[in-house]
Model the fold of this input.
Amino acid sequence: MKPVMQTDLTFETGNCGEACIASILELKLSDIPPLHNPVDHKDGVMYCKRLREFVSRFGFSYIDMAMGGGHDPKDFFKDCWVIATGPSPHGTEEWHRHGVVWYNGKVEHDPHPSNQGLKEIDMYGVFILKDPSKWIPF
Done:
């Protein structure tokens, strides 16, 4: 993982997710296409679709998982780089979300210059290797 900082700090088009992907895949931020829906920035379905299309070029899929029932995420994602998301400490609206790079139970990289992390984590984004025999090195 090579930390990459986000360059757009707005809630409408902010690129913390793109910076997290670039960090985990050790790419440049400019290698990651914009993932937000330009018409509706709250459209999480379009965002995830674009994210999955991008990471599939490297042989991965991507899923978001909410943890509940007393499960400890560290048990599920041991030794895995994950994008943890939740309410942003910078926002005032419920839909103001932020993403950070998470590893073995702690934030390893916050792409926002304030480095404040998240108010709480409510979702974990996981990269899944589709077919190990077809893995494409970066």
